[in-house]
Amino acid sequence: MPLLQTSVGISNLTRLGIRHALDRTHSNATTRPDAVGYLEISEFSTFELRHGRVRTDEFLKEWTKQLCNSFSNGDRDCRVTVYQALDDGMYVYLQDSAGDRQTLEQTFYSAILKIEQSLNTFLKQSELPECHLRYALAFHDDFVKTHTASTTSAPFEGFQEELFQWMIQAYRAAKRQSTPIHPLEHVELLQILEQGTIRIFEQPILNLRTLDPLGHECLMRGPSFSRLEAPLTLLSIAEKAGVMLHLERMIRQRAIHNAKVDDRMKLFINISPAIISDASFRAGETLRELKKTQLRPDQIVFEITEHHAIAEYSSFLHLVSHYRSQGFQIAIDDVGAGHSGLVTLMQVKPDYVKVDMELIRDIHLDPVRQEIAKAIRQISDRFGGIVIAEGIETREELNCLHECGIEYGQGFLLGRPFPREKEGEYNEQERFAIPM
C-alpha cells in the first residue's frame, strides 16, 4: 500500500526538525530501518497557548516518557529507535529481524494506542482536556517505489539523504490526516485489509412499474460488531489513512467473484473519482477479474460518487471514456446532492443517473422536489440516461416517483441489502419487500 504523494509543504522549521533528528542518528544509524514512523500531538500549539509553558513542559516530559515505555515493550524481534525532531514531533525507526511488515505495523500502532491512552490518563489527572495523535508509517519498499528523484533540497548525502527524504514521506502522510485516526481504528483497518474481512451485500434495483429487477448494487460493510462496521466510517478511515484505493480494489474483486446475477442483470459497483490514481485499475485489472467469472463487461456498472470535487477533470473524463470503450457502463451517484451536479451529468453523460435519497425523502409532500426529479429525468432523457431513485421507503414515495416519470428505483421498500457471501440458491422474489 504505497503512500500517496501529497501537496503538504515542508517548512524550514520542519527541515530543521528532521535535521535535528538525523544529526542524532548519524553516529548509530548504520543500517537502514525497514520502516520510518512519524507521530505528533494534534493541535499541540493550541495546548501551549491555552495552558502555558509550565504545564506544556510537564506534558512534554510525560510524552517522552510514554514514547520510551511504549516502544520498549514491543516485539522482541523488532528493534525500535525513537528520535525527537522539535517539541512534540517524533520519528521512529523500526527494524524487524524477519523483515515482516505485519509485525512492524502491529508494533507501531499498538505503541500509538498505549501512548494515547497513557497521555489521556495523565491529562485527566491534571484536569486537562484529552489529546489525540497524528501519525504515519512509511515502509522502505513503498518509499523506493514512489521516490524517483529528490525534489526537496537535503543537506545530506548517501544514506542520510535517503533517510531525510524518507522521513519527509512519513511527515507528509501524517499531516495529510484532516483529523487524527484513533489507533484502534487504524489497527482494525489494517486487519481488514490483510485478512479481507469486508462483507459484500447486494440491494435490488427494480422497475417501478413492473417490479422486474434491473440488477443489484454491491454494498460493503466492515466486520460485524467492529468499530468499522458502518461503511461510511470504514471509507472515511481508509481515506484518512491513504488506503482508499486498496480498499476499493478489494471491494471490486469480492463483488465480482461473489455476484450471482443472470445474464440480463446489471451489477453496480461503487468507485470514487480518485480511481484515476490507481494504476491497476487503468491497467485492466477489473477486465481480468471478469474473465474468471461468467459476467460480461456490459453487465458491470461503475457507480461514481463525488464525495469531493474532481481535481483532474480531463483525466477523469479520459478514464470514463477508456472504460466505456471496453464495454463497461457508468452511473453517477447522489445526483442532486453534494458535488454530483449538472456539470458532471452533462460532461459524463452516464448510462444511469442515481438520484440522491435526500431528494426522494417525502417527495410526495414537496412539489419542488417533484419538479427537480422531473428536471433530472428530462435532462437524462436527452443523452439516453436511465434514472434510478435511491432510498425509496414508502408506497407514497413510490407512487409519486412513478407519476414523475422515474422508471427505476431502490430502497428498503423494494428490498433491503442482502449478505451475498452466505447465500446459496434462493428464490429471487423472496428478496423483495413488495410482492412481485
Report strand %: 15-25%
Question: What CATH architecture of the largest domain would you give?
Answer: Alpha-Beta Barrel
- The low-confidence runs, each spanning 5 or more residues with pLDDT under 50, are 1-18, 24-28, 148-156, 423-430
Q: What is the CATH superfamily classification of the largest domain?
A: EAL domain
Counted by DSSP, the helix tally is 15
Helical residue percent band: 40-55%
Overall shape: it is: elongated
With strands numbered from the N-terminus, the spatial order across the biggest sheet is 5-6-7-8-9-10-11-12
CATH topology of the largest domain: TIM Barrel
Distance between the termini: 45 Å
Helix/strand structural class: alpha/beta
CATH class of the largest domain: Alpha Beta
- When the domains are counted, the total is 2
Give me the Rg, rounded: 25 Å
Find the count of extended strands (DSSP E, 2+ residues): 13
Order of helices and strands: HEHEEHEHHHEEHHEHHEHEHEHHEHEE
How would you state the average pLDDT, rounded? Answer: 79
What's the story with the biggest beta sheet? 8 strands, mixed, barrel
Protein name: EAL domain-containing protein
Domain EAL: 182-431
Pfam family, one: EAL
GO molecular function: cyclic-guanylate-specific phosphodiesterase activity
